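Readers of this paper often ask what the protein records in our data store actually look like. Such a record has a labelled line for the sequence and another for the backbone structure tokens. Nothing more is needed to write down the fold, since each code stands for a local backbone conformation. The remainder of this section carries one protein's record, kept here as part of the documentation.
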Amino acid sequence: MAESRAAVRTAGRRLLRRTSRGVRRTLAERRGIIAYLAILGPGMIAANAGNDAGGIATYASVGAGHGYGLLWAFIPITISLALVQEMCARMGAVTGKGLADLIRERFGVRWTALVMLALFIANGGVTVSEFAGIAAATEIFGVPRYVSVPLAAASIWWLVVKGSYKRVERVFLLMSLVFFGYIISAFLARPQWGEVARGFIRPGFSFDAAYLFTLVAIIGTTISPYMQVFVQSSVVEKGTTTEDYPLTRADVFVGTLFAMSIAFFIVVSTAATLHKLGARIETAADAARALEPLAGAYAGILFAVGLFGASMLAAGVLPLATAYSISEALGFEKGVSRSFREAPIFLGIFTFLVVVGALVAMVPGLPLFRVLLVTQVINGLLLPVILIAVLRLVNNRELMGEHRNGPAYNVAAWLTTVIVSALSLLLIIATVFGLGS
């Protein structure tokens, strides 16, 4: 009997220890999840802002024009975007300074002023396109642009100027949830998933001018200079340090995967419905309208809602990225949590871009394609400059110390920079000479 009681006590102690270990492990996992959610933001917002009105139009035209044949390109592009975003986020955490600030310190005021002027012009033009995207989305639902655009501009301005960084970040993250509509639209379109898988894992290539133009356009719309500026500045304003950085890196990688998954599903939904018909897609709104009779009303509505949310997110992030970069370059006070009195240049630039972007987007008969062409060329010229500057900065021993790139990472990063830069220049040539038409 005594031996039996001793055995029971021993078994009880073992069970208690296992339970205790399980509870501690569960608590640690919960703390890890909470810590990740607390630092979630810069990477997710920056990557998803790339899925703006122009991006959605590009992905929709890829699906309509090439079916599933270009899905393979999303694998190397996802890796490239993750590498570039991660380097900028790491620099923000290690140095506590934004990208424009570091460029001014290391490369001089004149070079910085030239880069900032180009960024200002390019981002101003793209901001116009975002408000045009808002107008196109709301007009699908019968709301005229003269109502929707001013309301959208006022909402974005009020959120940033009157809110704190945490509030702005939370609203931007909530806007990102609207991208789930594209995933649902893809399933409503009933694609042949076997063909989708073959297009994703089996690379193909063509020297056809339209094919090359489309391939380069995917890269150009996925990796944009303002995204690098925004992610680094927001990491700094969030107060991320090297101790917090592993979670920020996770945020960057998760944000990149989520954003590229959305792009993937946009291609799938339009390929499944529009490719066989040979439909020509010029804008994201065209895709939303074209999806409705083929994939059902809900697919078209979800696509239009996604366009509205994506345009709203980018219409906030683009002016913010521009305000961050110019304020950093000129050494002015900056920050979403600052008042107009504390940061007049920062909030003044943001306000100017929002107001001008909204006003220009309401101009009847606006030649939006011409605006996008000019800004696309400027961004294409800027991207190689920004990427090379990022690599020089992130490898600076004095600046980054032990957090600079390792040899293997450097090979991948330089390869990415060379390929993306070459393709961006190819996009400029193709755009100027009309090779994609």
About this structure: The mean pLDDT is 80. DSSP finds 19 helices and no strands in the chain. The chain has one domain: 40-432.
